[in-house]
Amino acid sequence: MEFSSFGLISNPKVDLKLLLKLVSVIESKNISLEMEKNTAGVLSRKGKEIEEMESELLLVLGGDGTVLWTAMRTSAILFPINAGRLGHFSEISIGDTKKLEKAITLLSNGEFYVDERERISINTTDALNEILICTSKPAKLLDISLYIDSRKIEDFRADGVMVATPTGSTAYSLSCGGPVIYPSCKVNVITPLNPLWMRPRPIVVPNSSTIEIKLKKTSKEALVVFDGILSKPLNPGESVEIKKSKRKTRFARLKWGNDVQA
Predict the structure, then answer these.
(1) Is 126 one of the annotated active-site residues of the chain?
(2) Of the residues 64, 126, 159, 227, which is catalytic?
(3) Do residues 129 and 68 make contact, with C-beta atoms less than 8 angstroms apart?
(4) pLDDT digits (tens, 9 = 90+) for 202-233
(5) What's the topology of domain 120-246?
(6) Which terminus of the chain has a lower count of CB atoms within 10 Å, N or C?
(7) What are the extents of the domains in the chain?
(8) Residue range 7-62, pLDDT digits in tens
């Protein structure tokens, strides 16, 4: 599959010179560009809302946060180009001109494979890395009941609890003591945040399982946070069910790619 056009999304904080550099490399190869609205505005061009973009392949210029933000809004194939502080999803940096030019050529020629990553969801809202339930007020514990496939596992008190995908296992979950999971494993990990008496420990479950997290009526208010981007309130007595999403995030990986880099 060859591509004669790309979509382009850039973090608004990326230096204009870096954005212009990427656009110049792309257009020098006679590849047309469809731009996200805010990205286009920086260059005084016309753009579209990300949900309206028609390109099958989107170049994402920024850090990991920009990739997560983009992945939440589109099912197109993504090719991240790091221009931020963290670039674990990216194979190349905007500063490496030689590698950047080679990557654009390989992408336009279709010389890549698609790396599919599972997502998790609550109803219609999903996440690539993790869904976090955390206290809405600092230094306050939540009273939590954990169920897996309708079976009660444990009641515990903690700062919160998260469910992470294999992709997210190397992010926030890892910092909280969770295991590293190989990307192709069909599992998710439940990782408590600072649980009282160190229980429960992180639990790895099949990604076909339904994970229910319920706040007891005696608990404090909480927030449900999707990939650190979107948050919703969760009140005492309420619960959420986390399942494998019907959507997947797809990355374009070139021949020098590595499945475990993200």
Answers:
(1) no
(2) 64
(3) yes
(4) 999 999 999 999 999 989 999 999 999 999 99
(5) Tumour Suppressor Smad4 (2.60.200)
(6) N
(7) 5-111, 120-246
(8) 999 999 999 999 999 999 999 888 999 999 999 999 999 999 999 999 999 999 99
